[in-house]
Write a structure and sequence with these properties.
- The complex is a heterodimer of chains A (250) and B (136).
- Chain A is built from 9 helices and 7 strands.
- Chain A is an alpha+beta fold and 250 residues long.
- Chain A has a 5-stranded mixed beta sheet. Chain A has a two-stranded antiparallel ribbon with strand order 6-7.
- In chain A, α6 crosses α9.
- A two-stranded antiparallel ribbon of chain B has the order 1-2.
- In chain B, a hairpin with a 2-residue loop joins β1 and β2.
- Chain B starts with 22 loop residues before the first helix and ends with a helix.
- Chain B folds into 2 domains: 78 residues, Up-down Bundle (3 helical TM bundles of succinate and fumarate reductases), CATH 1.20.1300; 38 residues.
- The chains are: A alpha+beta (250), B mainly alpha (136).
- At the A-B interface, α3, α5, α8 and α9 of A face α1 and α3 of B.
């Protein structure tokens, strides 16, 4: 390593057996121009303080594990470089709006439960056998859902959503975007099941179009667009049922 | 089998003052606040309609009230608020609409925002022209 530069990284620590509320702790870390915030944290854990806890896996913005607040903004720490945060200090905190389990680790169970609830997989319209061949889609049909399928469940959009912070029961941008990803897919037939969740107050109607979710998304998904398209869909379902009641046929 | 794996005591951070935490949230709150300017001006106009119904004297009194310095100041504040309102809503408009396709290509968000602005400018100029033509 060439002569190393140093940067101060301040981490919001929370050790439930030790403190009642989180406290800031400062570390000085040598860094090179190609080092990410995640690598800075790994240096702290390996060489300075082994008690620091954080999640990470792939180091290349694919797994969605290393989301955290970097200088107050939701970021993937593997994709955020120390050289861009000079001269420091860099303040690192667990993802906003989620309960902190320990240091930079947040509780994810409620998120996973919501994700499961919208059935994020294709529910075929009718059974299809192999000899019927593959499904065909036009480029337009693909574009209707393609960007939403880039979601990596990193939850940065939740840390950017004040409505989720104020009401943790809100289904939230990421899960709603994924629900829409399947609803908008011409191969899928599960829309009615998902709309039951999307149309509730905790579904799309808790969104107030802040729009920050779409700004912070590291995969260029546009959750705000998915949510708001489904306000239209939900309203259509509500009013159209007076014209074509489905109650009897269900 | 029971293994004690440590204390689990999730810490929930308070949300007080959340909108001051990020400049994006401040802009959002500003956008929402400008809705009050729209409400205020709709009341000004509604009062005008009510005064018109009351007869010529009432109508002229309302017109005179609009020319007072306080009223002109209010109108300037409302004009700025409307500009912020229009700008921020046209910015978020592409996110609130279903995807549109023209000739097999998706209409870009920036095109939707531009269309909003174009419509605003056209309607505003038409209103100016109509008023000018009316007064002649």
């Amino acid at each position: 390593m060439p002569e190393s530069k140093r940067i101060e990284i301040q981490v919001l620590r929370y050790r439930p057996e030790q403190e009642d509320e989180p406290v800031w702790q400062s570390y000085y870390v040598p860094f090179t121009d190609d080092m990410s915030v995640l690598q800075g944290l790994q240096h702290i854990k390996d060489d300075i303080d082994g008690t620091l806890s954080f999640r990470w896996s792939c180091r290349m913005a694919i797994c969605g594990s290393c989301g955290m607040m970097v200088n107050g903004t939701p970021k993937l720490s593997c994709q955020t470089f120390l050289r861009d945060l000079l001269p420091g200090p860099v303040r690192v905190e667990a993802l906003a709006h989620f309960p902190i389990e320990r240091d930079l680790v947040v509780s994810v169970e409620p998120f996973v439960k919501k994700l499961e609830s919208v059935k994020p997989y294709i529910i075929p319209k009718k059974p299809r056998t192999l000899d019927q061949g593959e499904y065909l889609q036009t480029p337009e049909e693909l574009e209707l859902f393609e960007q939403y399928s880039s979601c990596i469940n990193c939850m940065l959009c939740y840390a950017a959503c004040p409505q989720f912070g104020l009401n943790p029961d809100f289904t939230g941008p990421g899960v709603l975007a994924l629900a829409h990803r399947y609803n908008a897919d011409s191969r899928d037939g599960g829309r009615d099941e998902r709309m039951e969740i999307l149309s509730t107050e905790e579904g799309v109607w808790s969104c107030t179009a802040v729009g920050y979710c779409s700004v912070v998304c590291p995969k260029h998904v546009d959750p705000a667009n998915a949510v708001n398209q489904n306000k239209v869909n939900s309203a259509k379902d509500y009013f159209l049922r007076f014209l074509s009641p489905k109650g009897a046929s269900k | 089998m029971s293994v004690k794996v440590g204390v689990r005591r999730p810490y929930i951070r308070p949300m007080q003052g959340w909108w001051r935490r990020d400049p994006f949230f401040i802009r959002y709150m500003l956008r929402e606040a400008t809705a009050f300017a729209v409400l205020a001006y709709s009341i000004v106009l509604a009062v005008g309609v009510a005064r018109l119904a009351q007869g010529e004297a009432a109508w002229n009194a309302w017109l005179a009230a609009l020319k007072t310095p306080g009223s002109i100041l209010l109108h300037l504040v409302l004009l700025v608020s409307f500009a912020v309102h229009a700008r921020s809503w046209f910015e978020i408009m592409p996110k609130t609409m279903p995807m549109m396709f023209v000739g097999g290509h998706r209409v870009e968000g920036s095109a939707i925002t531009r269309t909003g602005w174009t419509a605003t400018v056209v309607v505003t100029l038409a209103m100016f022209a109509l008023t000018w033509w009316w007064k002649k």
